[in-house]
């Protein structure tokens, strides 16, 4: 066979996951799935999805699926919280200071009063854990799924004399009811055992036990 020259361009891979939403007719609920790589656009995407679900389907309830939400520094925690509640949301602390987390409510198309369920699991990490813990403690949302792992720490490090490196948590979050989420994680109100491959929207979530249980919150 003849030789060929193949040119390969090396570039950084970009995740293309994005916020998705759908309607659950039996529960009269909108379901919004937060993507793994959420960023500042999550807030505007959330507003668009809520308004679209209300305009097109007249939803009466809302489910936010955060089971794969690995949030980062760009995650708009305070803006997201302000959609559903207001006031004291707990405290973020470091080795040196405490920072009160306080939000002012913004009611978008009835977002402050719509019945709310949050879906969580071991892959719910960072600011999305704080979001779930705060709304749970405020009595604003029912939390369904599996416990989170408490990955709300920021980390610091130092170099050992032998060249090794030690990483340690230097901050955490205490919820409105005094739970240190970095230590305890978030415990769901309703525990539903499931595996990662059951997070599926096949046949309108027919095979997803966590979404199935969430529907019961609005139908039983």
Automatic annotation (TrEMBL):
Pfam families: Peptidase_S41. Residues 1-193 form the Tail specific protease domain. Transmembrane segments: none annotated. Coiled coil: none annotated. GO terms for cellular component: outer membrane-bounded periplasmic space. GO terms for biological process: proteolysis; signal transduction. One of its GO terms (molecular function) is serine-type peptidase activity. InterPro entries: ClpP/crotonase-like_dom_sf, Tail-specific_protease. This is Tail specific protease domain-containing protein.
